[in-house]
Structure formats: structure tokens, C-alpha cells
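Lecture 7 notes: from sequence to structure.
We start with the chain below.
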Amino acid sequence: MPYPTFHFILVVDIEGFGRRVVPVQQSLRKAMYEVVRTAFEDVHLDWDTVIRLDRGDGILMLVPTTANSVVLAGAFVRALDDALREKARIYTAEHQLRMRVALHQGNCQQDADGWVGEAINTTSRLVDAPQLRAVLAAATRSPMALIVSDEIYRGVVRHGFRQIEPASFGPVLIEAKELRERAWIHVPGHPYPPGIDPAGPAPQDPAPQPRPTGQVSGRSQAGGERFVFHGNVNVEGDQVGGNKIVNGGEHR
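Predicted C-alpha cells for the same chain:
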């Protein structure tokens, strides 16, 4: 089995995709690929080197480390926002294309059927977070909302590199299935994400969990996801430490 490889992980997801009729869904999928590819080209990132996993109403992308994390969190986000606004000028309300976008990083491993990895799972949870959905719904004049993991925020965003304004990112605590982490939301063109109170208390880091030792492997009962736990699990088999590898893709 090959070793895991490190990637930047980018997920885009179309808002309200399921409520459209099939011909509109087909049109939106085509437009989604066009705007994402255009954004990569605009910031001189090689689209052909990106591993693209289709999610139906979105794309999960494994971006090689030859790309630059500062560009992905800054210039690329602006380029994607510009490309979406360009589409908005020619699309009808029925074809409105708005996106939730998530950015994370981590090890990913390829198997016979695709890619797996804890970081892939985390990014999928982030893009589906209810806080991100609520912010995009509140930002009625914006075509996208971005969420980045705390790891991306601490390593890239908070340093205020070119085309990144840390003060425009608002913290949220994401709790979804096995994920309980702080993340940060940003809406291009907004000084602060609408719907997040800048004067409110910042979400606290998740409290450490007890760590009995053991190892469990098998198939989950809910959703049939393949998983392997190494290290620390509790007596019910839920992970509280160590590494977890699961099937990637969309989880709702």
C-alpha cells in the first residue's frame, strides 16, 4: 500500500442544488467547473495537477503542495469570487450559482477505488457546516462564503499575507459526527461574516477527551463507511485519539 501524501484540500459545494430541476442542475455543474478552473488559471495554479473528486453538487479537490497555501487562501478566493460574480451577471435567478467553499490540509491516501483520509473527512464536514450555510444565506449579495480549518487559519490567515485580511474571518465551533473543532468563516467583500457577532464570545478549543487505549477496525453501522482506527478509542468504538481513515466524498 502506498504511503499517504500531503495535499491542500479544497471543496466547493453549490447552494440549493437539490431543489433545482435536472436541466438546471446540469447547467450549474458545468458552470461550477468553469468558474473553479478559471480561478485556478487566474492565479497561475495548474488545474491539470489537481485531483478532482466529483460530489455531484460540488467538487473535492486535492491540490499538490507545489501550489501555495497563501495563494489558495487569498488570491484564489478572490478569483473564485470574481468568476462567480461574472456568471451572476448573465444567469437568471433560477440558475443562481452560489458556493460554500472549504479549505484544509493534510495527509491523503489512495486506494483501489479512490482517496481516503481524516483530512478529507474533515474538509467535507466543514463545507457542510450549518454555520457556513447560515452565513451564506445571510450574505444575500455575495456569491460565496469560505470556511478554513483552524490549522489553515493559524498557519496562513492570521499572519495577514497579501490579499488576506485576518480581521474579516469570524470563528465558529464545528460539531459534526466525529468532528469538534474551531474553524473560521470569511465572505469576500465583507468586513466580517454576516450573522456572526464580532462582539460575542470566541468559541473555546474543544475539551480533551478521555483516552482509553485499544484498536478497532470494521464497518460503521450508519452509512456503511469503511474505517480503520489506530490508537485510542472508547468502549463504544468512537475515536477520541490516534488516526482515523475513512472513505472520502460527500457525507450529509
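Points to note: Confidence is low (pLDDT under 50) at residues 212-252. The chain has one domain: 5-192.
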